[in-house]
Design a protein that fits this description.
By secondary structure, the chain is of the alpha+beta class. The chain is elongated and about 100 Å long. About 20% of the residues are buried. About 35% of the residues lie in helices and about 20% in strands. The strands form 3 sheets. A 5-stranded mixed beta sheet has the order 3-2-1-5-8. Strands 4-10-9-6-7 form a 5-stranded mixed beta sheet. It has 2 domains: about 90 residues; about 160 residues, Cupredoxins -  blue copper proteins (Immunoglobulin-like), CATH 2.60.40.
Length: about 300
């Protein structure tokens, strides 16, 4: 049988096999693990709230892919089997206008899909933004150009002030938090709008100078599920050194967190002054400096042009 005599079915069969092979190759050469593929590009979070948002993203993507496959299939089916053939009289194919069942199907199904997506989006949002009346840990986040101060409202220094840590030219501010405890954050700014963002939380909230006047809550809560060091950033353009306004979240065990607050609540015998965060972490045998980001030189004249 010559090439011209081969049936369209055999050509489409070869095209289908080639498409499947191309899909398998594209999937394997990306180097993604099975878990990463199931997340559809969603980053791995460290809080239950992040996992809820990941599930919403995954199932929404699956639904979108199902709809896409159906639409692509109908398009290809129309192209393959309803093309104008040699010898056709040129008459239009059978028309379906005024087909009430088909029109109802095309209206009702999309509406149902939107309602289902809306329902799961709203329920996930309510769950992520849910707050306990009395969280285990209360943190006040104070943002200012171009630094952060973190106040632990559940513990006091020998001076009677809340335990706090603030960054300097040499030290990145480190927010020490416990795992497996509910944490409440209260955000405020002393100057312009900033934004509190920890990528592993998969959550971002703007920090306004006057919380009572903004259009969103200035509080949120979460629970960190695993220990580690996670970079934090300001995600709102706030001035010259916005890109350098970083901090670090240091998630430790509940026992280590209690030890940290205990050290911060008393005087360092070596210095005769209250412990700083780097001193307390060093006394606990933990890295005293941020591991995920580094301070910057604020002297712009110290830098050389790159080109």
């Amino acid at each position: 049988m010559t090439l011209k005599e081969r049936s369209p079915v055999s050509r489409w069969s070869r095209a289908g096999k080639a498409s499947v092979l191309a899909g398998i190759v594209a999937l394997t050469v990306t180097g993604c693990s099975a878990e990463e593929v199931l997340r559809f590009g969603w980053p791995e979070g460290v809080t239950p709230q992040a996992e809820e948002m990941r599930q919403l993203w995954t199932w929404a993507t699956v639904a979108a892919l199902v709809v896409g496959v159906i639409v692509w299939g109908l398009i290809l089916w129309s192209v393959a089997f309803h093309r104008k053939k040699k010898g056709d009289s040129g008459e239009l194919p059978r028309q379906f206008q005024y087909n009430v069942p088909l029109e109802l199907f095309c209206v009702v199904i999309p509406v149902v899909m939107v309602c289902v997506l809306f329902f799961f989006t709203v329920t996930t949002e309510f769950s992520v933004l849910d707050e306990d009346e009395d969280p285990d840990v209360a943190i006040e986040v104070v943002a200012f150009q171009w630094n952060w101060e973190f106040r632990h409202l559940d513990a006091e220094t020998p001076d009677g002030e809340p335990v706090s840590t603030v960054g300097s030219t040499d030290d990145i501010p480190i927010l020490v938090l416990p795992t497996d405890r509910s944490i409440g954050y209260e955000l405020r700014s002393t100057d312009v709008i900033h934004s509190f963002w920890v990528p592993e939380f998969l959550f971002k909230r703007d920090v306004f100078p006057e919380p009572e006047r903004n259009n969103q809550d200035n509080t949120f809560q979460n629970t960190i599920e695993r220990e580690g060091s996670f970079v934090g950033r300001c995600a709102e353009l706030c001035g010259t050194y916005h890109s350098m306004m970083n901090f670090e979240v240091r998630a430790v065990s509940p026992e280590q967190y209690d030890e940290y607050l205990g050290l911060m609540s008393r005087v360092n015998e070596e210095t005769g002054r209250p412990y700083t965060t780097p001193q307390a972490l060093e006394a606990m045998g933990l890295p005293s400096q941020a591991e995920t980001t580094a301070p910057f030189d604020p002297d712009r004249t110290a830098r050389e042009p790159s080109g």
